[in-house]
């Protein structure tokens, strides 16, 4: 070992530092239920986090102390049982260990012949099992569904453009390329259409039915109209669990339509797709197997630490053709480290890739998919139960049917619509600021909703009872405070 | 804590498992110099890594045993002092601890108001210091330079297209958009041109000079010719350390040209840009500050564990405009967890983002940038020294000038050109298969080169002596073996 290396002089001391630091992070997880869900980062911490580039190093133990004091207590909050915001997974300890070991191994999984490649292939094979995808399909771990959708739509674009757009650019397409998703689709889909050069307008927002599912008749009409005006319909993106309400598009219907119309069906299954693992949703989600591509997240409902998603593409050749471009310095070899074909860098935009497969491997091996499915099942049951709790309270109003794991409701006793919106925003902010719970907000039918998403293995039924009580209490407290003197409730 | 959670029943046992697993991974790092650089993954391991999706879990300690036996010994090899392949960083233990802690915290750094956002902002501010970038510029941590380049070129595209291509697509650009990079530019640049809808042909390959640097006169002519035929020159991508030979384009010259021609100058500084930290290269690299955007990697020469890169964009508004698209469910709030503007998801394609800033923060705090710069300096000195060692050996031939940290040479005693190519490929494969060292190969001027890249803090001068001896020994051994009976050397 050269003297100038970054390796420690005392390896046993390094181990002790690792143990001490990780023990404190583990203790925090153990006791997380007793802590506030979220607390703002204090101003003095923020100030310290503006220190300039360190020129000289510090002993590792001092850096750890700084981490424990300034960083560890002020995280996103999603490890807490009463974190219900957006769609965040809660993480898990076995997966965290996998990530720690991956960091020490420091593999680059862009390609070549080494064990990390085989681990990622195994994880991809497990994904195919989950969605009953054919063994000959291809897949890639990504930072999340956003990038998975970019990768899938790039393959769709290149397969459907009617010209060699990879070489000649999008302007070479003989007709304007258009795609479809419901008006409830995630913004990541529009961002992908932008990034890939279709433009956001090329993603048509298809109206939804009363359950917030894409309307098939409306889609059929839009395709016909687009063809009539000379555009080239190319792909449909199914929302498999919308972020607003958890709505799941009619996958079998979409698959049949796309087959007939020769469109690429991509499933944005970020969290909802995993409900295929539980009996209540397996029938509706079985048709995921008919999609041309699926993107989903491990870091949401499968509780793998951030970040990790995956994309599966049924047509391996189309997937590879969209991304392969190897130069001399990346030539593969029959023997040695440069073997290992196919390389993962041929299936996505990244040439260097981390070993995110290992945290997935640790998570799935340690808990097994059945136990992870039980978390999904419990979360769905909890959402239904929350819907009933809301219905039982005079002062609360459910704003959308509970279809998966999301309940959107509001505190409904106030003077007028505008003040109700402000009141519910204030309730959510106070829940967060007081550390009680962390739902988020959204707009449903023009009204501000308190949005409770359940993708959290630590949430118990009691946590939801506590939430409902707190919303009602805060609603009364805040509406009393904001009411002008003498203003009656009847206004 | 609910009974159904994935948390362990015995937290102290969990800590012991973490300690035992990490100690074994740390021991392996400590003893890495005694192990083969690389060894093929054994067939029985590969077979076990085809096991189907686990339905029931296993005790964590059994998963750890399986990891230690089947995965830990068979990594990419880049933690070894004699790994010289491609451009891989060697990792570091403080950064690995940061990653482990990030995995336990499980923050989502897509946005909102929590400490991980402040840590990433600090890391981005440090990046600006390194490259003397203005404080008002924007930045984002990415999986690497490939994605950093996509992000930067998306901002360039939207700023320069002459139409609202985000909304209307690339076909709306009034003239065909073209960009330029040297013929030695990394394939990630062409992949970015493809992904963003320009098409690969829209990236013009500018000829290089004898030192493999982009020819400015040739570039000026190409721009003029493109304009003459109605195309719209938009961006130039400077190679700051080519992967073949480490060549650095004339940044000051490119900056002046781009200013005059109103082109966006993007610097692909994956590893070479960091040489700005050392006196020999600081003058040539100072003009990086004039680029409109810079993408570079932490996981290469700064030794942060995979994956982590960064992109800086001078025009914050252009950067943000290229990616922002927030829906109701992502609305920010003045108070609470939904504060924290600006959100990182507004500066890149990802809505969920891991806390990769923490491993950078641990690395920079623990070692300080001066010690990391000393690694860079030593690697450059080692490349020069290797060049001299090659020159001293009659049987070796240097194939390109050593300009940064890369030496390309070959064993040159054989019968004819074709057999020399095969012989050098065989030498590299044998070096890898015997676990002696792991250089890679490339083609330089139509000839197969043994390519030695030094971005490794563990490499000592003795490791390079050993490499040169081994190449000569293997060259003689393999050429003797492959020579047909009676064939003379003079053939």
Any overview of this molecule?
The structure is a homodimer of 491-residue chains. Chain A is an alpha/beta fold. In chain A, 42% of the residues lie in helices and 12% in strands. A seven-stranded mixed β-sheet of chain A has the order 1-7-6-5-4-2-3, with helices on both faces. A four-stranded antiparallel β-sheet of chain A has the order 8-9-11-10. In chain A, helix 11 links the parallel strand 5 and strand 6. In chain A, helix 4 packs antiparallel against helix 13 and helix 13 crosses helix 15. The longest helix of chain A is centred in the C-terminal third of the chain and has 36 residues. The C terminus of chain A is likely disordered. Chains A and B meet through helix 1, helix 3, helix 4, helix 5 and helix 6 of A and helix 1, helix 3, helix 4, helix 5 and helix 6 of B.
């Amino acid at each position: 070992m050269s003297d100038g290396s970054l390796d420690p002089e005392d390896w046993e001391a390094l181990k002790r530092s690792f143990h001490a630091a990780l023990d404190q992070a583990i203790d925090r997880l153990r006791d997380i239920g007793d802590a506030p869900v979220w607390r703002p980062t204090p101003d003095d911490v923020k100030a310290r986090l503006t220190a300039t580039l360190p020129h000289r190093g510090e002993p590792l133990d001092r850096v750890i102390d700084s981490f424990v004091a300034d960083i560890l207590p002020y995280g996103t909050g999603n490890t807490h049982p009463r974190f219900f915001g957006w769609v965040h997974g809660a993480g898990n300890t076995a997966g965290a260990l996998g990530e720690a070991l991956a960091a020490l191994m420091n593999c680059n999984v862009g390609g070549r012949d080494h064990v990390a490649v085989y681990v990622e292939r195994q994880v991809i094979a497990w994904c195919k099992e989950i969605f009953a995808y054919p063994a000959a399909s291809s897949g890639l771990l990504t930072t999340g569904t956003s990038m998975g959708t970019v990768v899938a739509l790039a393959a769709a674009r290149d397969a459907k453009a009617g010209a060699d757009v990879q070489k000649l650019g999008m302007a070479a397409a003989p007709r304007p390329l258009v795609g479809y998703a419901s008006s409830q689709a995630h913004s990541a889909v529009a961002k992908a259409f932008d990034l890939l050069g279709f433009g956001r307008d090329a993603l048509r927002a298809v109206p939804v039915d009363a359950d917030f599912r894409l309307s098939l008749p409306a889609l059929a009409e839009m395709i016909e109209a687009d063809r009539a005006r000379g555009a080239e319909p190319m792909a449909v993106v199914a929302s498999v669990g919308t972020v607003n309400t958890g709505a799941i598009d009619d996958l079998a219907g979409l698959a049949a339509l796309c087959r007939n119309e020769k469109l690429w069906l991509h499933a944005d299954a970020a969290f909802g797709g995993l409900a295929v693992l539980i009996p209540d949703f397996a029938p509706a989600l079985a048709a995921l197997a008919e999609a041309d591509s699926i993107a989903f997240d491990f870091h949401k409902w499968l509780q793998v630490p951030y970040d990790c998603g995956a994309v599966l593409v049924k047509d391996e050749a189309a997937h590879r053709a969209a991304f392969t471009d190897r130069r001399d310095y990346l030539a593969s070899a029959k023997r040695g480290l440069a073997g290992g074909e196919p390389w993962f860098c041929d299936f996505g935009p990244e040439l260097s890739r981390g070993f995110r497969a290992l945290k997935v491997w640790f998570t799935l091996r340690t808990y097994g998919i059945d136990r992870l499915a039980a978390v999904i099942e419990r979360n769905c049951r909890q959402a239904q139960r929350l819907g009933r709790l809301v219905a039982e309270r005079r002062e609360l109003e459910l704003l959308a049917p509970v279809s998966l794991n999301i309940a959107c409701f509001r505190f409904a006793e106030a003077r007028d619509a505008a003040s109700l919106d402000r009141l519910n925003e204030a309730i959510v902010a106070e829940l967060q600021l007081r550390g009680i719970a962390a739902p988020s907000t959204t707009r449903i039918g023009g009204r501000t909703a308190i949005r409770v998403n359940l993708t959290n293995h630590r949430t118990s039924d009691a946590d939801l009872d506590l939430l409902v009580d707190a919303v009602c209490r805060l609603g009364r407290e805040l509406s009393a405070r904001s009411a002008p003197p003498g203003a009656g409730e009847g206004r």
